[in-house]
Specification:
Elements lengths: L3 H9 L2 H6 L4 H9 L2 E12 L2 E12 L3 E10 L6 E13 L2 E10 L4 E10 L2 E8 L5 E8 L11 E9 L2 E11 L4 E22 L2 E23 L1
Antiparallel strand pairs: 1-2, 1-12, 2-3, 3-4, 4-5, 5-6, 6-7, 7-8, 8-9, 9-10, 10-11, 11-12
Length: 227
């Protein structure tokens, strides 16, 4: 199951999503003229079910290779989740990008292969979990395209399709020239709870916990800075 925390990682998990969803042309040009570029960021997240810090560091090369490390859920318990990605991207033309790579997640010790493409306002990604061979799909629609070009915020809608159902997200984001980032996410997500069950037989009652999938609505506000 892909949680909101993993969704935020997916937006940065490969540089495709940061470039496709509105990364500045200046950085693209920089990577075309230099062999190496890097970026790091720190974010504070406050939402319906979370209050924590995240951070990432990525490296991009002019030949299309990139790598990234993302540390999330740095809270009072200090039990961070770490994800890492190694991938490759290719600019077909200014608004068309192809990419692929592999990611590792420490929170469930899983590895995923992914392939991605972007065509103007639409981004599509397919993920294959190496451990259980399960597939999941990510779609992003840039709502600023054409009609809202001059809107002061970046607006995007996203959907995650898994075997257990669909999660959907609506995001507002503003990145200032200083590197300060402000954002808001409204989401409809699946989440797992535990339902207590019981059965009485021959005068003896037995109890057990049974996992249950429910649907919830969540709000998340974040502030961060990128370098």
């Amino acid at each position: 199951m892909i949680s909101l925390k993993k969704i935020i990682q997916l937006f940065i998990i490969f540089s495709l999503t940061s470039i496709i969803s509105g990364q500045s042309i200046d950085k693209i040009n920089l990577l075309n003229t230099k062999n190496f570029g890097s970026k790091m960021g720190i974010f504070f997240n406050m939402g319906s079910d979370q209050l924590d810090f995240d951070g990432f560091l990525d490296f991009q090369f002019s030949n299309g290779l990139y790598s990234e490390i993302w540390v999330s859920e740095l809270d009072k318990n200090f039990q961070p989740n770490i994800s890492s990605t190694l991938g490759w991207m290719k600019y077909i033309e200014s608004n068309v990008i192809l990419g692929c790579g592999i990611s590792n997640y420490t929170y469930d010790n899983s590895n995923e292969l992914f392939i991605a493409s972007n065509y103007f306002p639409i981004t599509a990604v397919a993920f294959l979990n190496i451990q259980n061979m399960g597939m999941s799909y990510l779609g992003i629609l840039d709502l600023n395209y054409r009609f809202l070009d001059n809107f002061p915020f970046d607006i995007s809608a996203m959907a995650i399709l898994e075997s257990s159902g669909i999660d959907s997200f609506f995001r507002l984001r503003k990145e200032f020239n200083s590197g300060i980032n402000l954002g808001y996410t409204f989401s409809r997500e699946k989440f797992e709870t535990v339902e207590k069950k019981s059965i009485k037989k021959n005068g003896v009652t037995k109890f057990w916990d049974e996992p249950k999938i429910e649907i919830g609505y969540f709000n998340t506000i974040y502030i961060g800075i990128t370098f």
